[in-house]
Amino acid sequence: MADITEVWVYLSASPLLFLTLTLAAFQAGSWAYNRSGHKPFLNPVLTAVILVVGLLTLSGTTYDTYFEGAQFVHFLLGPATVALAIPLYRQFDRVRRSALALITSLICGSLTAIGTAVGLGWLLGASRETLLSLAPKSVTAPVAMGITEQLGGLPSLTAVLVILTGILGAVLGPPVLTLIGVKDWRARGLALGTASHGIGTARALQVNELAGAFSGLAMGLNALATAILLPLLWRLFF
Amino acid sequence: MLSALTLILTCQLIGELVTQFFGLPVPGPVAGMVVLFALLVVKGSVPADVGAVADTLLKNLSLLFVPAGVGVMAHLGLLGQDWLPISVALIGSTLATIVVTALVMSRLARANNHDHGEPHNG
């Protein structure tokens, strides 16, 4: 009979274990979220991340080992982003009708995201590298990392800040939007996509397809807007 | 189903090639979204199987962020150095962005709805 350590070594060398762990943790997160009557802080992504980080830390597994299995889930982010064309197409009449409002709000949101992140960080004495890594935090990870790298920040820190921003937006966004009385699905979706990229879009899509379409579009446009605006603003102020 | 998945992956591949080749500041999959959108406009409708595959992917979109989210564990030290400015900036800025974007959009979109059917400049 095999030793338990041998079984562990065997299992952790194949993608099966960590792929299954990722799905199971997310299922547990979704179960808790549904059981609680959709309490925002029980966001399934947040719960799943905490569960997986806890289990990996307890078992002394590195992120790289985990990612060898989890990469199959991660890979699907690409095709899923492409698939955002479908809700966008289905709702395109309504997107086109509010195009001017959409572009104006998006630019206001993009500037707010950059300005407040750098401003608050600077007031509280963050280092220059941290400020540069914070600046594109509302933008989808690959673009945010590219911008940070170009300006001399830390791309790996940016990736983490982007994910945390996404989770924060998905958790805090819907209750805050309700609090300030914004009921328009277009505005709710646009705000979630601009502030918290794909994770916000995933949240918007769960509630309403129109919100999802605006959110997915906002995610793409904010990536473009920030990639153009941030380097210009940075040179202007620093 | 398989042909729909092939179509989506092909759009992503075209997106990756175009962004790399022209050095565009958007990620390949976002460019792929534009490619697929353009194809749908040309075709004039969403083929049933493409719609089904897309809906399945998007219904589970949250799950796909878990592996990247777990990446936080590899950077806890880095986060710890500047934890106060980082947490205040993340929470404050995320809330400010959501509030500003939503308020501007709901005001402008409402104004737009009132104008509906009337010519307006812009």
- Radius of gyration of chain B, Cα only, in angstroms? 20 Å
Could you state the oligomeric state of the chains shown? heterodimer
Count of separate DSSP helical elements of chain A: 13
Structural class of the helices, strands and pairings of chain B? mainly alpha
Binned, the helix content of chain B reads over 70%
Q: What structural class do helix, strand and pairing data of chain A support? A: mainly alpha
User: Percent of residues of chain A in beta strands?
Assistant: under 5%
Q: Assign a percent range to the helix content of chain A.
A: over 70%
Helix run count of chain B: 6
Low-confidence segments of chain B: 115-122
Average pLDDT value of chain B?
Answer: 88
Q: Kindly state the number of beta strands of chain A.
A: 0
Give the terminus-to-terminus CA distance of chain A: 65 Å
Q: Tell me the span between the first and last alpha carbons of chain B.
A: 42 Å
* Shape call of chain B: extended
* Domain count of chain A: 2
Average pLDDT value of chain A?
92
Largest interface: A-B, 115 and 77 residues
- How many β strands of chain B by DSSP? 0
Beta content of chain B comes to: under 5%
